[in-house]
Design a protein that fits this description.
Length: 444
């Protein structure tokens, strides 16, 4: 019988992509996927270390895996990959002696080397090797795919652990990316999401002899691929949001009318302490430029509440920016100190948790109210929706995603992977509701 594996993924879309590569690699080694952790011969965790909550959740899962291993008298391999593993590389085996293999996010391929070695003694793989993603991927959906265009990050945000867990930025050659996407499209992919820690800084860190490029140039090259319907990307940095990328949204049919532009704080003073390399004014200037060329674009963002030293006045500035911009959605977080980051040393300036929670509640109210107001512009319109499957709340309806990145629940008959016109009848801050147009139903 073939051996089985189970992967639990924490964190960002880059981690989701890495997990797909783990699954594809394990499939090529003859492993099959188990639906439950307890039934697997190989239990893997792809970890995140951006926030303390992710650490705590992962450790509880890891302890459960250890209990399964004990119940089977050690006849289970436990592996830990990703950013958390990289951040505690010197301690992982001492703290968790039941772990058999640990590897950083740039060392996914080393898992195969470990599993096929003659002796399965505990091993750790933590070297930075740039991009190591030439592995088969087991995608969740045949029509959607991740494309990692770079690895690492050269920014030095004072709160962020990513540069120490993923290394400095390394970009893949443009021709290599175009060839990969062509192959994906030939295999049935119609929507891709480009991934990078600072995705719109792409092109400056391509190793010679391949020529340097730009993110806008990459978008143009990919847009020219027949059969590729949708291009998304995450996450850009406001510092590197240049007019050529903004114009690509306006002129290229496949580049979706959605941009995730992290704000983090509306206070220039706090942004400076975060080492974000832009001010409140610069961020608002970028928003104005984006909306000048793309008035209907959906803008989403990230915001951190309770960063060390944040005063009530600083927080009020964040609320003001949210009111002024009117984001279509936001990921909001209470600041969490991360090991080996500059901000973790600002102990004397830490914000009381109760204060941070109260500010978070106020922020969420503003974000959701403005997002709900923004969403009403879709009511009465017909949007192209990429069908992803049945609705999670009502199996008799379908669920998909509009070009603006909004989840749409609707009535109609269509197969996953189809792009269908949907008349929007209701909108909330989170989702849209609608019906397939009568013309679309007649054609099905």
């Amino acid at each position: 019988m073939s051996k089985t594996f189970h992967v639990t993924t924490f964190g960002c879309q880059m981690n989701e992509h890495d997990s797909e590569r783990m699954k594809g690699m394990l499939g090529s080694l003859g492993y099959t996927e188990a639906s439950e952790q307890r039934d697997a011969d190989l239990i893997l965790f792809n970890t995140c270390s951006i926030r303390e909550k992710a650490d705590s959740r992962f450790i509880s899962y890891l302890q459960l895996a250890a209990s399964y291993k004990r119940a089977r008298h050690g006849d289970v391999i436990i592996g830990v990959g990703g950013c958390w593993a990289q951040s505690v590389k010197d301690e992982v085996f001492r703290q968790f002696p039941y772990v058999d293999v640990a590897f950083g996010p740039g060392q996914v391929h080393k898992l195969a080397e470990f599993l096929t070695s003659d002796s399965l003694t505990a091993q750790g793989f933590f070297e930075f090797e740039g991009f190591t993603g030439h592995l088969p991927a087991a995608r969740e959906r045949d029509f959607q795919g991740w494309v990692q265009i770079s690895a690492g990050c050269n920014m030095k945000c004072s709160y962020c652990i990513v540069p120490s867990t993923r290394g400095r930025q390394v970009d893949r050659p443009l021709d290599e990316l175009v060839a990969e996407v062509r192959e994906m499209v030939a295999g049935g992919v119609t929507e891709i999401t480009l991934l990078g820690q600072n995705v719109n800084a792409y092109g400056r860190a391509i190793a010679p002899p391949a020529p340097r490029s730009s993110f806008a140039a990459l978008l143009h090259e990919l847009d020219a691929i027949d059969g590729l319907k949708r291009i998304r990307y995450t996450s850009p940095h406001p510092q590197d949001m240049k007019e050529d990328v903004v114009l690509a949204h306006a002129t290229l049919d496949s580049v979706m009318p959605h941009m995730h532009l992290p704000l983090q704080s509306g206070s220039s003073r706090i942004l400076k302490a975060m080492r974000r390399t832009y001010s409140r004014e610069r961020f608002l200037d970028r928003v104005a430029l984006i909306r000048e060329h793309n008035p209907d674009i959906a803008l989403t963002t990230d915001i951190i509440v309770g960063f060390p030293g944040e005063t009530e006045a600083d927080f009020e500035e964040t609320l003001e920016v949210c009111e002024e911009v009117g984001f279509d959605g936001a990921f909001t977080f209470i600041y969490s100190p991360r090991r080996e980051t500059e901000a973790a040393e600002f102990v004397d300036a830490f914000i009381d948790h109760e204060v941070a929670v109260a500010r978070m509640d106020r922020l969420v109210e503003v974000v959701q109210r403005r997002a709900n107001e923004r969403a009403q512009r879709f009511v009465g319109r017909t949007l192209d929706v990429l069908v992803e499957g049945p609705s999670r709340t009502d199996p008799s309806r379908l669920r998909g995603r509009s070009g603006h990145g909004k989840t749409v629940n609707f009535t109609g008959l269509a197969e996953a992977g189809e792009i269908v016109p949907v008349e929007i009848v209701r909108a909330t801050s989170q989702t849209l509701a609608g019906e397939m147009s009568l013309l679309a139903r007649a054609l099905v």
